[in-house]
Amino acid sequence: MLLERRSAPAFELLVERYQQKVFRLAYSIIGDSASAEDVTQDAFVKMWQVLPEYDGRASLSTLLYTIARNTALSALRAATHRRSASLDCSCEVPAPSVDTVAQLETEKLVGRLPEAEQEVVRLFYLQDRNVNEVAQMLDMPIGTVKSHLHRARRRLAEWMK
Amino acid sequence: MNCQETERLILDAIETPLSASERESVDEHCSHCSACAQFAAVQSELDHRLRRFITAPALTTDFRSLLTARIRQRPRPALHAWSLDVAYGTGAFVALIVSSIVLPFKPQTVLTLGIAICVAAYLLQSFIFVFVDEPYDQ
Asked: Are A28 and A122 in contact (CB under 8 A)?
């Protein structure tokens, strides 16, 4: 029904079912909730636009995750470009708490990982440590997700010593 | 069980719970191998930190209403299928009128010849579009 008529109620169901997952996928790539929400909006709008051309070869969720991932990567590139253009910001940063320091340290360590490993590690924890879900969202074999996780954990453990 | 296998099981345990026998083997190995025991402790601490700090924020409450509003805004097509025909017809009509006034021939002759040329050109264009896609209307 969703495919034949691009039915709004069916699309609502799709949004209901996947909005959090798409948001987490975007957040795992961008790391900023406002931008991740914009990306989630854009991904669903694009999904709605491409539905008439959808041929059913890949599952709807795979298509949606692919759109979301590409949209997030474009947004990340644009944000990186903007950030590098405004590095001279002299904003006042409040003194961080102990918890914030630990969080920043963890973020810093994860940020040192290669991009693919960062994405897998973040999504793994955002998706309640569900490897199958992560594999589906990133369109990767489960074995690849596990080896990314294992390599990342070994690196992080080394850096934590 | 050697250290390599133990480390693999320690890493696996974070994704999927180990069986009782695997758990037992890991514990037994770690009881006499300080390197693997330390590896297990660091991995456990790392998992704790990542679980604590990598958390998903929630979508804002107006997410759905904004999305619905965006989806209802249908983009206008840049060009309708008939737009080029209208432009072509209007151009031809204006050209014919101007030609019949400006050219030093009888207006009737100019109009007849002009209409013939326009019809031929239109047919030729339609013939070409049998073989190639027209560049409008998705």
From this structure: yes
- Does the interface predicted TM-score (ipTM) exceed 0.90? no
> Which of B48, B71, B72, B138 should we substitute to test contact with A (largest number of A Cβ atoms within 10 Å)?
B71
The pTM of this model reads 0.67
The whole-angstrom distance between B34's CA and the closest CA on chain A is: 15
In chain A (161 residues long), the average pLDDT of successive 10-residue segments reads 64 91 92 91 92 82 92 86 56 59 83 91 90 91 94 91 74
Contacts of B9 in chain A (CB under 8 A): none
Q: Is residue A83 packed enough to be buried (19+ CB in 10 Å), middle (13-18) or exposed (0-12)?
A: exposed
Quote the minimal CA–CA distance from A148 to chain B in Å: 11
Count other C-beta atoms under 10 Å from residue B136's C-beta: 13
